[in-house]
Amino acid sequence: MEEKGPELRLFDSSEELSSGLADYVLQISDSAIRERGYFSLVLSGGDIPKRLGKLTRSPFSKMVEWSKWHVFWAEENVVPKRHPDSLYWQAKEHFLSKVPIQPAQVTPVSHGVPGESAADSYELSIRQLVRNRTVAVSPSSDCPRFDLVLLNLGVHGLYPNNPAVLGEESQWVCCVSSDSSTERVTLTLPVVNAAANVAIIATGTHMARPFLDAMKLGQRPTGSNPAQTVRPKEGKLVWFVDANAASFYLNCKGQAASSSS
Predict the structure, then answer these.
(1) Which of 46, 60, 83, 176 qualifies as a FRET site for 31, CA 20 to 30 Å off?
(2) Concatenated DSSP letters for 28-49?
(3) Could you tell me the CA-to-CA distances from 242 to 49, 50, 149, 224 in Å, in that order?
(4) Among residues 239, 242, 258, which one has the least CA distance to residue 208?
(5) DSSP 3-state helix, strand, coil percentages of the chain (rounded to 5)?
(6) φ, ψ for residue 202 (rounded to 5)?
């Protein structure tokens, strides 16, 4: 299967984006459950858990087959479980505690252990779920084929500019540090690009320049923004972008259209 180009979904407001994202997650969930009996969702931090709160309320809450869901993390800070910077804790507070997903359906990164140990343990847990077919496997590699990976576009792109993440080819999970005191466990790029569906969310005026660069219309060269490396090989990439984050991009597109006419 050939690599597909990204789909861009633009929304007038952040609230409309959240509703659109909820519709999208429900659609992918239903499709995966019909096809395989399970739905594997990979979360990130930022405001994604809060946005998924839409699914905990009517009409979505009664439409979701929660018993078929399995939840993972694309990244996690190596901090205590109840620490404010724990992405697991954020997801539990804003989303997971409000829906009937059982603990056995959630695969968090281990807390209270060194980063390398947490990464090794997390990868082992994922491999076990691939072996028992709860998580599908990529048809072209041994990577897990998650049904949906949700990512947030940050000021500096998606991932740390770290070869352990961007250049890793054999490991599914690695541990990186942004400084001497902060460690983060993250899925590697081949795992993200093996997913059936990847959605990247960009909202707010502070995301206007990073989004423009990610769309290869900024002043930075192609490949300088880590978001440009997210290209599902046998899946689909969808961008969810509000009007503020898309402002520079739409302006550039409009100027290009005017100059060519």
Answers:
(1) 46
(2) HHHHHHHHHS-EEEEE-STTHH
(3) 17, 16, 19, 23
(4) 242
(5) 40, 20, 40
(6) -135, 120
Question: How are strands ordered across the β-sheet holding 173-179?
Answer: 75-77, 182-187, 173-179
What three-state secondary structure class fits 154? strand
221-244: pLDDT as tens digits: 555 567 788 889 899 999 999 999
Question: What's the N-to-C CA distance of the chain in angstroms?
Answer: 35
pTM of the predicted model as reported, rounded to 2 decimal places: 0.91
Question: Any bridge partners for residue 239, and if so which?
Answer: 8, 200
SS3 72: strand
Contact 56, 95 (CB under 8 A): yes
157 token code pair: 């792109």
Burial label for 220, CB within 10 Å (0-12, 13-18, 19+), is middle
What CA–CA distance (Å, rounded) separates 159 from 171?
A: 16
Tell me, what amino acid is at 4?
K
